[in-house]
Amino acid sequence: MDLATLIGIIFGVTLLGGAIVMDGNAIIFYNLRSILIVIGGTLAGTMISYSLGELLKIPALVRIAFQTHQLDSDEIIDLMVGFAEKARREGLLALEQDVVNINDDFLQKGIQLVVDGTDPELVRNIMETKLTFLEERHGKGRSIMATMGQLAPAFGMIGTLIGLIQMLSELDDPSKLGGGMAVALITTLYGALLANLLFIPLAGKLKERSEDEILTKEVIIEGVLSIQAGENPRIVDEKLRAFLAEDVHTGQSAGAEMDTMAVGDNA
Amino acid sequence: MDLATLIGIIFGVTLLGGAIVMDGNAIIFYNLRSILIVIGGTLAGTMISYSLGELLKIPALVRIAFQTHQLDSDEIIDLMVGFAEKARREGLLALEQDVVNINDDFLQKGIQLVVDGTDPELVRNIMETKLTFLEERHGKGRSIMATMGQLAPAFGMIGTLIGLIQMLSELDDPSKLGGGMAVALITTLYGALLANLLFIPLAGKLKERSEDEILTKEVIIEGVLSIQAGENPRIVDEKLRAFLAEDVHTGQSAGAEMDTMAVGDNA
Amino acid sequence: MDLATLIGIIFGVTLLGGAIVMDGNAIIFYNLRSILIVIGGTLAGTMISYSLGELLKIPALVRIAFQTHQLDSDEIIDLMVGFAEKARREGLLALEQDVVNINDDFLQKGIQLVVDGTDPELVRNIMETKLTFLEERHGKGRSIMATMGQLAPAFGMIGTLIGLIQMLSELDDPSKLGGGMAVALITTLYGALLANLLFIPLAGKLKERSEDEILTKEVIIEGVLSIQAGENPRIVDEKLRAFLAEDVHTGQSAGAEMDTMAVGDNA
Amino acid sequence: MDLATLIGIIFGVTLLGGAIVMDGNAIIFYNLRSILIVIGGTLAGTMISYSLGELLKIPALVRIAFQTHQLDSDEIIDLMVGFAEKARREGLLALEQDVVNINDDFLQKGIQLVVDGTDPELVRNIMETKLTFLEERHGKGRSIMATMGQLAPAFGMIGTLIGLIQMLSELDDPSKLGGGMAVALITTLYGALLANLLFIPLAGKLKERSEDEILTKEVIIEGVLSIQAGENPRIVDEKLRAFLAEDVHTGQSAGAEMDTMAVGDNA
Amino acid sequence: MDLATLIGIIFGVTLLGGAIVMDGNAIIFYNLRSILIVIGGTLAGTMISYSLGELLKIPALVRIAFQTHQLDSDEIIDLMVGFAEKARREGLLALEQDVVNINDDFLQKGIQLVVDGTDPELVRNIMETKLTFLEERHGKGRSIMATMGQLAPAFGMIGTLIGLIQMLSELDDPSKLGGGMAVALITTLYGALLANLLFIPLAGKLKERSEDEILTKEVIIEGVLSIQAGENPRIVDEKLRAFLAEDVHTGQSAGAEMDTMAVGDNA
């Protein structure tokens, strides 16, 4: 599980729930009609924008956002450097027996192409085309979340307008104005909460996940082509780690930067 | 029919209609003047922005959004792989008799150019130019919808301003304030509904349709050039399927990803 | 005249005027001070943003938006295909006598360069540089309209703020609140109308005009270079029509798409 | 002086001032605290965003916006065509004596590099690098103005919120509500005026200035490289004027377009 | 310390604090629940958007914004020009003894690669890959700040909605309306202040820092490759200073421009 996403949602809900309860009666914040308008309207708008096939992926998208990122780039680089050594010693065909044991589909496909003696240009072509479509698929998932993040506040406002029009047109006793407005505003609140605590942050998280996955796939393409070209395993290692270095060391190096800077300050 | 679009609109209208009826008198939500201002203003602004020719395409645009996407990319790839085999065996001229039977205009034009012995560079040139203009035409259709999605809320607000100014300037009995405001707000509601339940989602749907069609056309260009180059049919097949693989397997692979991840969670 | 632009404005004004008159007293919508603030403020902001030379082009911009698009691309292609034939038969110098009769400045300049024996690379260079600056000039015209479309609502709001501050600070009789607010809101209405019925749609129309003109000029560049290269007139024709095909057939092909689809629906 | 900028500001201030005075008491629009909040908050936010060095350039930026554009591109082209002739006749070294008399730093540097016998690739490299950084510097200046144009309305709203909270929390006499709201709204008015009459239009003007200067520098790079390459002076002239043609003839040609079109209309 | 950032924050807080105190009771601006909603909600949304690793870098990001920029590009260029001279005289291997003394990690890595005899193409490859990931890391830091700058006002509005709904639904004594609204608006004020005085300006400052650092790294890449290519030290110097010239002279040259222009004005 990705703790940040889960903790974030629990923390946000607890906090806002607490703020609501702290000051009195929580029941006034529940309104079935408002839920129907905001969630229903958002779903309706999303259904019109995307095909059914895309919509059925929403639950999968949400689950992906909650998963810990498990691609171990270091392991994949070690694997590819090993292949590079073996290919240099025993030839590319010797990799055939390793193909079945690779548990990353993308790397497996790449090595298979190399073993089959496919032209390097075509290997790059096929793998980059696959990566391009992965990016597009990820982009579509993200854009569904972002669309929901735009529609939710819009339908929140629509619900409030409906409530206001009903309330105002039937207003005979001015003392009921306050209560009516309170009910009307609940829909706006629902829309704002759904967008800012759910849809927009989840779209952000999907973007981050996607970038990580694409980076790993770029490393794999570079590595497969280096193996095919029979490059020196040491150089393959150096080249592939350049892709990841910053990412892996970020925590450390950011800390290091800060330390040096802090020292500079004291001086 | 594209079920998602139709179901989305029916669902959205039913739901919002239900929410309105649920709480009382639906007749207060009908206002002829508001309809005139929002729809008329939106059409007027769109007419000024685009030429008449473009405007007359709006009904066709709406219909396209309701169509199920019918391009069967797999079938087109099979057809092209078949052409590649025939061309290798019997030469490019042998494709002449197949040209008339191709029921995709774009592919037909491409094969015709190949049969005519056009220079490959020029074939690519002509087909890519055609694709570029298809993209532009699609982009224009989408931008008409998006323009309407911007103008509708603007004229909704304009109608509310007109209503408020009239009501406030003639206000002698404060008890009528509520009813007057209710009527004034209806125009804003119409504008928001048209934009968020119709124009903006339809613009999104047109974008998705356009991307599908452009992808298929890119596959066709790649395939026609491979046929002309006399490439190995097996490799043509491999190359073209790389374009589609992710799209076709998405459902499955997303599911697969989830499963592995879910297993990882339980472990 | 471009009917869409004119009809759009007349339609919009009539409709909104009708909506105003329909419900009573139209005179309350006239306010000189509001006109001064919105139009004056918008002009002032635009004057600060652009140089005087640019501002004096506004009337010309507006007129362009009302013109029917008269560039006949088919005629220009026919002309260029004719030149290509003549150049092949009689040599490039034979075009000299035709130069003076060309009534498109851009094509004339191009053929003149070819007749002068200018290096093809330089011909492309000069013509593309000219086109780039045409695009920039068009872009500037459009951005003036877009700037006015942003400033008008801003000064509408500024006028309303001024009205509200005056009214509220002198409010002794609460019964006058309504009338005061009505007057204050008129400025916002003016700003919204000017932006959504005039400036923003006109900016859109200028964009469409510009795209048409640039497309024709791109066809001319391609044609002039083909003539200079002595390409086969039939291929020149084919290449240039690829640029326009979609544009010319749009109506038809959109209709055709619809028909096939409609048939598919009934089936 | 750039008349448009100055006239625009005077006109805008006069007009809005007039609109304020026209309807009564101008003194109610003066509020020291509102000035402090809007101007102070905008400056504070800008100071945090940019380094001190950048901030000290604001007065220079404002002055640049008021300057008439004085780069005479025609003169620079004449000068370079003259150099091209001299270089062809007497060799590149003959330009050495002219270098000190060039009063444009960028052209001077370019000719110096040519005289020094620098490799053409490196000349282009150095001059384009310089131009890139000029663009970045201009972009930064513009972004400071644009940042202020965003912060001013934000702090206007912040000031109004502060005023409303104070006023509402101490409200015992409802009849004072109007006056309190009037005062609170003044800050929003200040923010909107500063942004729409000053910061945003000045950012626009800086953009226009920057584009002019960059265009001239591009012409200089092209010219210096042509001189170094020993190109025919007549062709150098032709090539460089292609950059400027549209700009210089704009007024005329826009007029010409209109005339032909107008004639077409009458016909 | 970066004075602008610190002074900006102190100045902004003092000024707004002063404006609040000036007019009375400051205590009404303190509300614990509002702080919890705005800060808690913003943190929750940010946690959902980013992984835990990214969030823990926020304090480091803030500290970086407060640091004075300490990269002395001139010193680095001098160092590299020195290396270029030494490498020309004594060969690339002679640089080995200098590597350990370089206190810039990026330059050290580059020289090490050169000393190791790595292929120039690969040196550029590795260094540019590292730079690309530095840019991405910086971009992510900035986007965290920008996300917080968007979420803070959103949760400010959410808090105000919660407050309004509670207040209105329990409103029995209309005289308490003012006080209730004052409390509800405080959350909006907090959100607007955090965004406009902290998050958005800090995101801007991080962008400026990042651009400076990337520029220096680009200079280093260019320099390392020139050293490896054995270029003339004088030309290396010239080439590298072209990157920085504008930046270093900005103050002066902007001043110079102003002077000339001012003189032009007086004339």
From TrEMBL, chains A, B, C, D, E:
Ranges of residues in domain MotA/TolQ/ExbB proton channel: 101-217
Pfam families given in the database record: MotA_ExbB
Single GO cellular component term: plasma membrane
Protein family per UniProt: Belongs to the MotA family.
Taxonomic source organism: Iocasia fonsfrigidae
Main localization category: membrane
Membrane topology qualifier: Multi-pass membrane protein
Residues that span the membrane, as ranges: 7-29, 35-53, 144-165, 177-200
GO BP term, pick one: bacterial-type flagellum-dependent swarming motility
Cellular compartment(s): Cell membrane
Assigned keywords, A-Z: Cell membrane, Membrane, Transmembrane, Transmembrane helix, Transport
Protein name per the record: Motility protein A
InterPro entries recorded: Flag_MotA_CS, MotA-like, MotA_ExbB_proton_chnl
